[in-house]
Amino acid sequence: MLSFTDAQLDTWLATFLWPLFRILGMLMAAPLFGHRSTPTRVKIGLGVFIALIVAPTLPPPPAVAPGSWQGLLILVNQVLIGVAIGFTVRAAFAAADAAGEIIGLQMGLGFAAFFDPQSAGQSLVLARFLNMLAVLVFLAVNGHLLLLDILVESFRSLPVSPSLLAASGFRSVAGFGATIFAIGLQLALPLIAILLMTNLALGILTRSAPQLNIFAIGFPITLSVGLVALNLSLPYFALEFERMIRNSLEMATSVVKTFGP
Fold first, then answer.
1. Does residue 101 belong to any structural domain of this protein?
2. How much is the pTM?
3. How many Cα atoms are found within 13 Å in the side-chain-facing hemisphere of 112?
4. Which domain holds residue 230?
5. From CA 75, how far away is CA 261, in angstroms rounded?
6. Distance between CA atoms of 81 and 75, rounded to whole angstroms?
7. Model confidence pLDDT, tens digit, residues 137-160
8. Domain count of the chain?
9. DSSP secondary structure letter of residue 68
10. For 3-57, what is each residue's pLDDT tens digit?
11. Is 209 helix (H, G, I), strand (E, B) or coil?
């Protein structure tokens, strides 16, 4: 008859449970995996599947009972690490959304908005378009596989331990998140410049010919120029999105290291 001790059961449970929560934290915050359109059962099933593969290859867990206060601290740490990895990569997609919002407002497409289930609010059509472009680039460069690789490597660079996470890791995540607006503005600057010159030309035209109805001709011209400029800029957007995604993946690796002692 087989018999197990409490220590053996705690070890087996901890070997699977703590990596699972780091994986689920990443899946909850990461782009594509954490989208609201992805069913919760799929996220949990994918997390369990990855944990079953990864857990046997990891170093032995600390000798801490999962149900103890120290075990709960380890559990919270694993969730925070996973969320930090996912949030860092998601920042690139937030920059694409910010660029789309800025360009859409300059083009006069501020009224073209619909409900976005991911943010639970109104989102401009152009912002969703650039976000979808960023998702396609993310899949094209195998970003989802690279993200999973970073997650698995994080167990080696930052093993499961009862020690507290370093504050420098949270500062790194906050600092990288602060670059969202700067990157989004940089992406939108070329189109902002083109639309600004278009508005200046319309202003000069109105001053030279006051009988023209600027409200009747200004909006179609601004919208047409913006769409043409956007069409010409799309190849460069794809290159910039690829660069941002690779930078965010490198930053996710650095964030994991800064959480260590």
1. yes
2. 0.80
3. 15
4. 6-258
5. 18
6. 10
7. 888 888 888 888 888 888 888 888
8. 1
9. S
10. 656 566 666 777 778 888 888 888 888 888 877 777 788 888 888 888 888 888 8
11. coil
